[in-house]
Design brief:
The structure is a single chain. The protein has 366 residues and is mainly alpha-helical. 73% of the residues lie in helices and 0% in strands. It is built from 20 helices and no strands. It is elongated, with a radius of gyration of 24 Å.
Length: 366
């Protein structure tokens, strides 16, 4: 039982295309907080404007000005985190103009955020159909080509959440071919390739994403993870160092770098432990940082220092036997035999309990 990642947190983060939930529209995710803080008067104003717009669109379906205003307002609602209201407005636009690409795309985004995935997929597919590929099928910088790429990325996210990884990969691959300079397309392609078991291909896409948006910490983290999965520890370490340099306050950067340095061992062990200490300092509730730091300290011959981290890891993941396994080793090395035996008994109990559970943590394999 010598896993580097008992819960395989990086694999979980990348194996599904939409693990970041709306990676293609971060502004929409952060905007939900704005909605929660909106005063009642503002909510009333939104409702009144929404009702007025919907009435105008339905009363005059051929009014181009009304449709334009409705589309603009719909995307404003999305940015404000008002997904139900946005879906209603985009529905009204689609009643007047069933093949309106903006309304189809905006509606798909709204329904995806509402977790109405069937409707989101239907509208995303319709958005893609409304924006046909170029005749030659090659990359294009036309507005329609770029919009189709956006729609394909959204479709890929929806399909990944629905468990259709093959369909998701096909969608985002086409998106990246149509718009290779589209950051979201490259990031989504990297995630899809990683989930399909192609870390080398994933690294290529993530490297493109990093080049397009050098300040994006997710892209750096995913790139490092892909390199590590591909067995290229040197490039992985370089990518983790770049992430830490970019933003020293990202705990996952220190965590990834620390785990890799500890794995490499030798003279890099102490640097790895220091990186894990920093990760814990930044986020003491991060299970992976706690358990990996505790394990590293045990391995480095510092079992007394490992106890607090392993105990906290056990609290954070009460059904995972790994912290207790490491605690048993630490106590044994400290001569605290009774406590070591108690932890070993807990390990046995948890393994027995996990045999009958479908949500048991993955085996601890290195």
């Amino acid at each position: 039982m010598n896993s580097r990642h008992p819960d395989d947190f990086r694999g979980r983060a990348l194996s599904a295309l939409a693990a970041g939930a709306l990676a293609l529209c971060v502004a929409l995710c952060s905007a939900t907080e704005t909605r929660a803080q909106s005063p009642p008067s503002a909510a009333a104003d939104v409702s009144a404007r929404l009702a007025s717009l919907i009435e105008r669109v339905r009363a005059r379906p051929g009014d181009a000005a009304a449709l334009t205003e409705a589309r603009t307002a719909g995307f404003e609602l999305l940015r404000a985190g008002l997904f139900r209201e946005a879906s209603e407005l985009f529905d009204a636009v689609r009643e007047a103009a069933p093949n309106d690409a903006d309304a189809l795309y905006g509606g798909a985004l709204a329904y995806f955020n509402l977790r109405r995935l069937t409707e989101a997929e239907m509208l995303a597919r319709a958005a893609v159909r409304s924006l046909p590929a170029t005749a030659s099928g090659v990359a294009t910088k036309s507005a329609a080509g770029l919009a189709r790429a956006d729609a394909l990325v959204l479709l890929g996210v929806v399909l990944a959440v629905r468990g259709d990884n093959t369909g998701a990969l096909a969608a985002v691959t086409e998106a990246a071919q149509l718009a290779p300079s589209n950051f979201d397309a490259q990031l989504a392609l990297g995630r899809a390739r990683f989930g399909a078991g192609d870390p080398v291909g994933a690294a290529k896409a993530f490297r493109a994403a990093v080049a397009l948006r050098p300040s994006d910490t997710r892209a750096h983290f995913f790139l490092a993870t892909a390199f590590e999965k591909a067995g290229d520890d040197a490039e992985a370490l370089k990518a983790y160092r770049a992430l830490v340099a970019l933003d020293p306050n990202v705990a996952e950067g220190h965590l990834g770098m620390g785990v890799l340095l500890v794995k490499l061992g030798g003279e890099r062990m102490e640097e790895g432990i220091a990186a894990l200490v920093r990760a814990v300092a930044l986020n003491g509730e991060l299970y992976e940082a706690r358990v990996n730091l505790g394990r590293a300290l045990v391995r480095a011959g510092r079992p007394a220092e490992s106890i607090e981290h392993l105990r906290r890891a056990a609290e954070l993941a009460p059904h995972n036997p790994e912290p207790h396994y490491q605690l048993a080793i630490a106590y044994r090395r400290l001569g605290r035999r009774a406590e070591a035996e108690a932890e070993s008994a807990l390990v046995k109990q948890l393994h027995e309990a996990h045999r009958g559970r479908t949500d048991a943590p993955p085996p601890d394999n290195n």
